[in-house]
Amino acid sequence: MPTTPTRVRHERHHQALDAQALWQKDRDHFIHPFTDYSLFHEKGCDLITDSDGIYVEDVHGNRFIDGIAGLWCVNVGHGRAEIGQAMADQATRMAYFSTFNNLSNAPAAELAAKLAELAPAHLNHVFYSCGGSAANDATVRLVHYYFNRLGKPNKKRILSRNNAYHGTTYLAASLTGIESNNWDFDTLDHLVTHLSEANLYRRPAGMSEAQYCDHLVKELEETIDEIGADNIAAFIAEPIMGAGGVLMAPQGYHARIQAVCRANDILYIADEVVTGFGRLGHFFASEAVFDTQPDIINCAKGLSSGYAPLGATLISDALFEVLSKPQGKGGVLSTGFTYSGHPVSCAAALKNIEIIEREGICDNVRKVGPYLEQQLKTLSGHATVGDVRGSHFMLAIENVADKATKALLPVEARVGDRVAAEAQKRGLIIRPVGHLNIISPPLIWDRATVDRVVAILDEAFTAVTASLKADGYL
């Protein structure tokens, strides 16, 4: 069982902060990502100022259970003094130096070796970035370079999926298949083709899980025939789709998809930005849970538990053999970032991984995760709860107007926001995504915490049902 994290104590009190002044500065100057500006201009944001273990506190001193691990990422919990100290030690010794032109640093080298040890056996090479979006972006550039070096310059198309989330840099946003994410934004449609998402809850009526898997695999095969395998570079997929709704694929889906890709010389990229580093009970889920051996795994978030920005692309030996050959005399692999292999971020990741291993946090997820799934399903008796799905510490509740037809409530009902607001009133932060509510907590929750969370959610859904009825939506 993981120990309770040691909190980094701050020598100040909430009353020392000018809450109103901070709120005003934030509203007037900070462009927040994924924010509804029809509400923001009036309401602004809740300011989170402190954290400790599974809790966060706002500027007014209100304490909340963190039900989203910051944003899928604070896997070892908040306020880990060990990680802060590792970062401070590295920053005072050497905060930064370039990793370009045959230069490196100790934490980047140690972390690369550790990631190769933890990953499937054929993934022994690491390309560093600053987060998940950049990792996915860099991956596509490397994949295109790989096929160019093999004399296959037409292999450019990337296959992704509807409702996939791979980031918001220009290219990563094009990989992302959540329609609303790209409203009025441009995307690189000539490079990306989206297939159907794997969504067991909303699969075609009358299809068994096995038939649904056959249906999705056939769609991939037909798409390859239509585009031509010689024009397709890679297929990218999250093992469980995250921001798109914690969508679960049918049994055997990923292994069968990879087999089709291999038969057509198409690389298989696993986006483990969310699922990596324990969220499903393993450091990497691709092989351990889904029986796949990706050519590339991308990771971020739990890699450093959010203590410092860091992303990593894990590349197979076969790909590296091609990528590492110079184009000609004096040629270099001319891609990378100023902060690739940043020593402070890598030091944070090394300490984070040490904590996960030492405290058996993956074991905790494998023990407590099924209980969390089981207890959340007890909420299915509420009028709007159509589906409770996911795995271990990666779960979602889908709200509906009618359970039989699975029809959704109108957007203006803001059902996900209502549930999140009622939960927050009672001391729990969960994430609203349209008609969904996502629970992705720190990986140190125990059964007692699960019981508290489910009790809060039970009250929240009761209140939301009443408010929806009062407003004429039910």
UniProtKB/TrEMBL annotation:
Cofactor dependence: pyridoxal 5'-phosphate
Coiled-coil region list: none
InterPro entries per UniProt: Aminotrans_3, Aminotrans_3_PPA_site, PyrdxlP-dep_Trfase, PyrdxlP-dep_Trfase_major, PyrdxlP-dep_Trfase_small
One Gene Ontology MF term: pyridoxal phosphate binding
UniProt KW keywords: Aminotransferase, Pyridoxal phosphate, Transferase
Family per similarity comment: Belongs to the class-III pyridoxal-phosphate-dependent aminotransferase family.
Protein name: Adenosylmethionine-8-amino-7-oxononanoate aminotransferase
Species of provenance: Franzmannia pantelleriensis
Classification of source organism: Bacteria, Pseudomonadati, Pseudomonadota, Gammaproteobacteria, Oceanospirillales
